[in-house]
């Protein structure tokens, strides 16, 4: 209730009464009593789609928002059950916190929002597209905290595929015929393999120092193989950006370039492969030496006779 | 002739030729042995009888009779439709008139009501002679596999391989686990034939060979007049022979042609099958079940509807005393079938008691057949074979995981779907005839029917009594106990040591006393208190070391299985039976129960004599001999929790040896999925102290139990409601 004008005065009064008896609960544990139910949700009468209200407590506990209380973002009125019906229309906006917050300055939000506004999604869908269309704030975790590159790929591509692999969701959002990914990516050799190992955004964002939020349409996306398959692969500033930084810290600048174990076609950066080839080289030299020595010894024995 | 002799001589004169002739003779001999000698030997060994099966109802019609019948059937079908259309007309006279108008309205009268009338007319079919007649056109059928591909199959083969015919399965595909922790017939195990055909059960009190077809001499109301009644498993199975499909249990051999011709196609496919033809007949070879092979039934064939399924399945769903059981109202023109009072699952599928049936949903809408194979679903506690093990039959297939679409609580109700099965809320009661405790050892005289019947000491359809709530992950034990555990507290839930072996003696005493007092009149040495204690604590029948072993087996073998997959709370019908047991084959979960011979039991009320008669059946004798032991019994008993099958035949010199009457060591738990009610339980039916869910027994830790029983949210809701 707290300050939120709701329904009739009777309900408000009653709510205040209950507040004093049961106490408004701003503890996340209270919210999770219901919201940890995996099937909490309903079918949206407009779209027929499932609207899930489930928040995985374990995943939330790992997310960047884990320190926050539910009602920090949501209206404090949600601390009551049943939730006041006036709150059903609540619309949240990430910018409320992120734009002004100095602690988050390194994420350069004003710039990020500009990029976002220029992205194909906003250009085509306008208000129908928001931060939440891609980022689930209860699960959100910045990429550099995930050490497993493979998992980064799965998570990030999962975001894109939630619309781009679901004809129903896609059509509901765009009113457009669903383009099948496998067709639109016909030019890309081994498309499935690529999708398993790199993110959609590697090609579908401009090459900037930091991963851009300006998602590019198909026609502007990267189609040059060499952009990735080269010594100066763009992946080093994208998918492997955090790995690169981390490796630099660990191995020093030069070694990190030579011994980066991020394996890419066209540039051997695999530590194990590097070491293996050194060992193989050593073995070859040793073999040649031994062979030469054997011949020399044999010749000497023959000559002596 | 001369030339042939020349060739034979030439062939014989060469060594390779001689070898070829000998090989050919050996092959011919082998074939002869396999085709002629093996079946004779098999019949002699197992004691089963096969002979030509004839049915009096199969009569040839004249042209005129055929046409008259066609006319009549068409008119009847039309009338039924007209009656359905006018069902809401209140005034009888108006309704009559409307029906009359409809019956002569051209658009209401399509050319044909039953397609096969025309087919028969053209093909000159004027007599129905069983599968032979059907196969004239349907020798093969096209089936759609669950993967969506089309496949052409031989119809007879398809039926013979179906569970409806063979009621067992010698392959993987069970959701059942042995007490030794092994999945029944798993890929790596030695598969044995298991299913209803060869596992005794306390509900029918017999098993399929000893209880296939029986004629019982009854004396209704104590009169001298003997009335013959039909009884036996065969009434519900499509094979028409003198025994269940025994041949199918062997890896070799085939079902004899005469048995194939005894299959009852019409009971599933005819819209006008008359259950009054289904009674036991006796001929020179023995007893078997009669069938409706009239042209009347044959002319209305088509795809099965719920009505067909329910001829048999309402017996175990609603029960025989269920008011809308069609078969139970058509008991037979002769030797009427015996009604079974206590219902097995007591969850009827009929418009009156099930929301889906009321909506006109057919059985095959959910149990989608693939040819003659019908899926049972991927969950099950009992040892029943399943034609299509991987195929889901589930509420979610249609209703999604957010089934509640209206009302202010829809979201929180949908939230419950993660932990509760739909049935848990939407089956609020079973039929009152639901049998929970059946005592075969102390039969009661049924005055009305004029025979002795097992005493159902406890029948109730109430929640928490006739059925209970357990965690279930889709798997079951060899003796039908649901497996699963509380995800919140996986080690703190143990129904096989708690709620399935311990009932509340006070509650039980109160429920059982009237029946026990009545039983006390006939059985003087029956002490009601001891009786109540024995059934309330079924583990009391086990020696202490066996109880300890049981505890160990549960933790070591079953606990990992209980923790598998995702468990939800499901309702389970409870059942226990007191029967005679072969104590040489006892394990921590029970002993091999012995079957009863129906005529002896019903006519004399002497259960021991009935056991003696039943176990003299050749196949039971064979069970206690080496070949059978090696072929399947050792494996069967390993699943049962007994190391080895002791082949000590329990009948020596006319006396039962090492045979004792006992309750099973735990309640069996049977899934109930039908009888779905639109309005489920409300919040407070469970979320209150002593609600219908026993949260403590379900393994919740004490503080969580307190919370679940006193939800602060519910108190608020109540306060709000009162405020309104």
Short description, anyone?
Chain A is an all-alpha fold and 305 residues long. Helices cover 48% and strands 2% of the residues of chain A. A two-stranded antiparallel sheet of chain A has the order 1-2.
Explain what you see.
The complex is a heterodimer of chains A (305) and B (724). Chain A is mostly helical and 305 residues long. Chain A has helices at 9-22, 28-35, 57-62, 70-73, 95-98, 109-118, 120-125, 131-134, 149-164, 167-174, 181-184, 191-197, 200-203, 241-251, 253-259, 271-304; strands spanning 41-43, 50-52. Chain A has a two-stranded antiparallel sheet with strand order 1-2. Chain A is elongated and about 105 Å long. Chain B is α+β, with helices and mostly antiparallel strands. The longest helix of chain B is centred in the N-terminal third of the chain and has 32 residues, at 15-46. In chain B, strands 8, 9, 10, 12, 13, 16 and 17 form a 7-stranded mixed beta sheet that branches. In chain B, strands 1-2 form a two-stranded antiparallel ribbon. The chains are: A mainly alpha (305), B alpha+beta (724).
